[in-house]
Design goal:
single chain; Alpha/beta knot; 2 domains
Length: about 230
């Protein structure tokens, strides 16, 4: 664990109780004698605190140092993902966070599992725990849109990962993907109506069919390297 998330990290004095106390001192078993590094996931800083008081359900901390962190990436990496089973989203989210995705937009497509809806507080908690482990000091931005039309009206220059598009090879990656938002369908891809409205489509060389979450990880990995 690189640090512990706390929304008020930066304050000269902190009182920690409730869920934060349980996470730090019971789940993580942090020693009172060891300085505690906190991050608020908003300002690219780590804050070191000395524990001045600790009892069974409360702790008081005093700020002793701060350090700026390098940003996770010098470019925007934006993935637009049609909503799938929330368990799949939750399992994939830490990987996208570790790969430096700047923003993840979720939307309902024709093939999305409609009874499911993203639980944003739960996804936020998953992201904070991922940041604590990998050391990312800014939070991946989450956005939910109701349908493909909303996506296209907001991100009209997006590129869809879809069969039948321009084949991605090393020679044309930058030309087709650099600076673009990448849109990925649910299981089964896009419906014929949706596919006809996509402004630009690319596909992966070969005949392999990727799962929706695998396509997200692939796109994030490629964009991170461009």
């Amino acid at each position: 664990m690189r640090f512990v998330y706390h929304p008020d990290a930066k304050a000269s004095v902190l009182e920690i109780g409730g869920e934060s106390y349980t996470h730090i001192f019971k789940a993580r078993r942090h020693d009172k004698r060891t300085p505690l590094t906190l991050c608020n996931l908003t300002d690219n800083h780590l804050y070191t605190y000395h524990i001045t008081y600790l009892d069974r359900n409360k702790a008081y901390l005093e700020l002793v140092d701060s350090m700026s962190c390098a940003p996770v990436s010098d470019r925007v990496v934006h993935i637009i993902w049609a909503i799938v089973d929330p368990k799949i989203v939750e399992k994939t989210l830490p990987t996208l966070n570790e790969l430096g995705v700047t923003k993840l937009t979720l939307f309902f497509s024709h093939y999305s599992q409609k009874p499911f809806s993203p639980n944003l507080p739960r996804l936020h908690k998953i992201l904070t725990r991922s940041c604590e482990q990998c050391g990312r000091s800014t939070l991946l931005e989450l956005e939910v849109l109701p349908d493909l039309d909303s996506v296209l009206s907001r991100y009209g220059d997006c590129v869809a990962l879809e069969f039948g598009g321009v084949v991605l090879e090393s020679a044309n990656l930058r030309e087709n993907l650099q600076g673009k938002s990448i849109i990925i369908g649910a299981e089964g891809g896009f419906s014929p109506d949706e596919s006809a409205r996509l402004p630009h489509k690319v596909s992966i060389a070969g005949e392999l069919v990727l799962r929706s979450e695998s396509a997200c990880v692939f796109a994030a990995s490629v964009l991170r390297l461009l």
